[in-house]
């Protein structure tokens, strides 16, 4: 049987590891300042779903750089409440550079003319409506900030604060926060909730693929319920 040779880490992976080591245990604002002002100035954006927990990281970023580009993927399949929440929250926090990303109309016309691709092939739907629009927007940036947390489980349990995947660095400033810290931050800063949180949605994506969860269930248990799919692909494609 052929041996698989171990590959050496790239220079970018080495840098990400060094940053993760340097900022291990640092608070989120320190990590954000380091990333935005020192390590990747002018070459970094926040990607936000304006979902159930998003207000925390958006509020933190607003303290450091309210004009930071914030990328919101408007899939065309959001609950009606989400774009309203996105507008109101951006205004309340003073974020001045929120950009709405859309799937390409000509691609939607060919690949999802009836709007039901999510039912037939959710991976293809996520690629069309999320992955490609984000890939296109991220060509302008070498680094993006995410709100992923280890307690979300699945592929997120071992996430570091800094990583390098594909062509990009990723910064995860609140990766080690637990649900209690998230709750406490909402309360301390009187942050508005996405309206669906009170209806049993601890994680909010597109309406066809998001369901409420029972008390005690995994936060993301309502996403693509009944299928093996756990991620939309924006974090798992290279
Ligand atoms: S979450 Fe569902 S509706 Fe949204 S892009 Fe993915 S498959 Fe399509």
TrEMBL record:
Keywords: Cytoplasm, Iron, Iron-sulfur, Metal-binding, Oxidoreductase. Binds 1 [4Fe-4S] cluster per subunit. Gene3D superfamilies: HUPs. It is found in: Cytoplasm. GO terms for cellular component: cytoplasm. InterPro entries: PAPS/APS_Rdtase, PAPS_reduct_dom, Rossmann-like_a/b/a_fold. It is an enzyme of class 1 (oxidoreductase). Catalyzes the formation of sulfite from adenosine 5'-phosphosulfate (APS) using thioredoxin as an electron donor. This is Adenosine 5'-phosphosulfate reductase. The gene is cysH.
